[in-house]
Amino acid sequence: MAKRKHKNFNKERKTLADSSAAVISLYIYGHHAVRAALENPQRKINKLFLTANGAQELAETLARLNVRPEIKKPQELAALLPPDAVHQGMVLDCAPLREPDLADVAASGKPLIVLDQVSDPRNVGAILRAAAVFGAGGIILPRRNSPPPAGTLAKTASGALEVVPLVSVTNLARALETLHKAGYMSVGLDERGAMLIGDVPRDRPLAIVMGAEGPGLRRLTRETCDMLARLPVADDAGFATLNVATATAVTLY
Q: What distance in Å separates the CA atoms of residue 57 and residue 39, rounded to the nearest whole number?
């Protein structure tokens, strides 16, 4: 499968001028993502844009939280977003959540997901959703070449962005070394891995490292992992690869 690039996220984030600094403001859209963001007390809300139908769907939530939306026509909401975005009558202009420290998520002792340049926002959103369902302690991804925590990612995550910590790091290999010092064992998923994922020892907390579709794990990331493991496949499957989000969900399960 050809690797699809997702580099242009301009319509999923915008910059608001502040007297002292630039403040990043993000768009979240879609029913589940917007409702979850509104319900999250840690989320700073700037503006909420709804269609008349969207306002009816959220009427109880709006009254309880005392939020007053601006009513817009569907095409006015669409103009704020990328061409393929499905807003479902709801667009939220909000600030990013406070980013937790790597040490904070490591202290949980829960399984962690480390993403090595997974750039498709739909994949990252789906991984967030799986992480929420299977109780992962957080997702760690590089600061560069990763989608913003909003827009397509948030809609695909279906509310999981509000409950699963997302940690951006400058250097992924260094982050893995930090996790090792915190007692984690890092397991890189690779179809050439020496053992099956079900045979990985569980005497320590696990950091599961997933590579981008196509190139997989980068060399330095692979070398920094404690071990490489693979998913089991049927003998007559004909191929041994899965979408990265599906592979992550299977691994977490």
A: 14
**What single DSSP character describes residue 225?**
S
The Cα–Cα gap between 244 and 136 comes to 16
| Tokens 């003998």 sit on residue | 235
The tokens of 169 are what? Answer: 């790091």
CB proximity list for 172: less than 8 A, separation 6 or greater: 114, 116, 140, 142, 221
Nearest to 50 by CA among 80, 33, 32, 73: 73
Mention every residue, 6+ apart, whose C-beta is less than 8 A from residue 105: 112, 137, 138, 140, 165, 167
Q: Is residue 19 predicted with pLDDT exceeding 80? A: no
Q: What is the pLDDT of residues 138-184, one digit of tens each?
A: 999 999 888 989 999 999 999 999 999 999 999 999 999 999 999 99
Given the candidates 3.40.50.1970, 3.90.1720.10, 3.20.20.240, 3.30.1330.30, the CATH classification of the domain at 10-94 is: 3.30.1330.30
CA distance linking residue 221 with residue 102, whole number of Å: 17
Cα separation of 239 and 233, whole Å? Answer: 8
pLDDT tens profile 224-239: 999 999 998 877 666 6
Which residue type, as a one-letter code, is found at position 27? Y
Answering whether pTM is above 0.90, one says no
- The residue type found at 170 is T
Residue-wise pLDDT tens digits, 99-120:
899 999 999 999 999 999 899 9
DSSP state, residue 161? G
